[in-house]
Amino acid sequence: xxxxxxxxxxxxxxxLDILNLADQLKYENHNSIEHHLLKGKTLGMIFxxxxxxxxxxxxxxxxxxxxxxxxxxxxxxxxxxxxPVEDTARVLSRYLDGIMIRTFEQKEVEDLAEYxxxxxINGLTDYCHPCQVLADLMTIREYKxxxxxxxxxxxxxxx
Length: 159
What we know:
By secondary structure, the protein is of the alpha/beta class.
């Protein structure tokens, strides 16, 4: 999987693979087993919509996996001041190993993926929130052990 732009891009097996890996890493973290899966890797985190939980969870996750996270706000980027997304994607691709973006427009996430050469993670748009859905699925599976017979509905960020 190159990008995580929306959950619909993943099939059932890919979702289960992600959840299984997350379960394994969570178990090992709780048992003080260190990982360096992302050693030497830097994730740029673009926040056009602020979020304490998203920032802390991504920074902590990168640290726990041996990588580092770089926080980028609107003030740090030219994207909101006239620089085309295409240019931002190309420039950031030279310095970073991945980008997580939390923004308003889904198109901005998709443009970063199209013009950049590194993986893009959708941290939230007005259209979807795939990381939150995956986290929710992980929690549901922990408590229910299965998704069989369950129905899901995403209401949105503003509710």
